[in-house]
Design a protein that fits this description.
By secondary structure, the chain is mainly beta. It contains no helices and 15 strands. It folds into 2 domains: 110 residues, Neuraminidase, CATH 2.120.10.80; 65 residues, Immunoglobulin-like (Sandwich), CATH 2.60.40. Helix content is 0%, strand content 46%. Strand 1 and strand 2 form a beta hairpin. The N and C termini lie far apart (58 Å).
Length: 195
């Protein structure tokens, strides 16, 4: 292949697709842009064009190169993102950002791949679903849930596909784990510390 014999083509992207300060990742050889806004803005979330506060777009975009089209999913993703960190096995973390009304977020979002969809947004909710945390022997759920417990390498080490009220973690080594809990609205990921 001769690099001087490249045939270049020019393609105009869909003008309706706008994204500013999104988090970009590649998963299964497909590019994704998550969160961000549709209008440019200054550090404080106020639009450069003088139109006022900019709202988050609350969406994820996937470019489908085979059909040269976009797949759009809507969720509560923030704007003012710079990147996402892949922590293993198709699991990404987005931290911070800016939500509605230019509020700086202290939330951590986990994006976890699944068989049916390439990614699923899950939130680290402030509501307590599991206790005690840190745990020694038994962890209790505020109501019955199906769950998976992942180690720091995102390997599943314990799970229950049947909703349960509690589970025994006494045999696990001390450390940090991720508890992926199935709720009626999807999945919630909680950080769990084992003593």
């Amino acid at each position: 292949s001769d690099p001087t014999q490249i045939s270049w083509s020019y393609q105009i992207p869909d003008a309706a697709i706008k994204g500013y300060r999104t988090a970009a990742v590649a998963y299964q050889n497909q590019p994704y842009w998550m969160g961000g806004s549709e209008n440019t803005y200054n550090y404080n979330g106020i639009a450069y064009d003088g139109s006022g506060g900019v709202p988050p777009a609350k969406r994820s975009l996937k470019y489908l190169s085979a059909s040269q089209s976009w797949d759009t999913a809507y969720s509560s993703l923030p704007m003012d993102l710079r990147n996402a960190a892949e922590i293993g096995n198709g699991v990404f973390i987005i931290a911070g950002g800016m939500t509605d009304n230019q509020k700086v977020s202290n939330k951590t979002l986990y994006l976890i791949s699944s068989e049916k969809t390439p990614y699923k947004t899950v939130s680290k909710e402030n509501k307590t679903l599991v206790f005690p945390n840190p745990a020694k022997d038994i962890i209790y759920f505020d109501k019955p849930y199906a769950f998976s417990l992942l180690n720091i390498q995102m390997q599943e080490i314990l799970h229950s596909s049947v909703p349960v009220n509690q589970t025994n973690v006494s045999s696990l080594p001390s450390g940090c784990y991720f508890l992926k809990i199935k709720t009626k609205n999807g999945f919630v990921v909680k950080k769990l510390f084992k003593q």
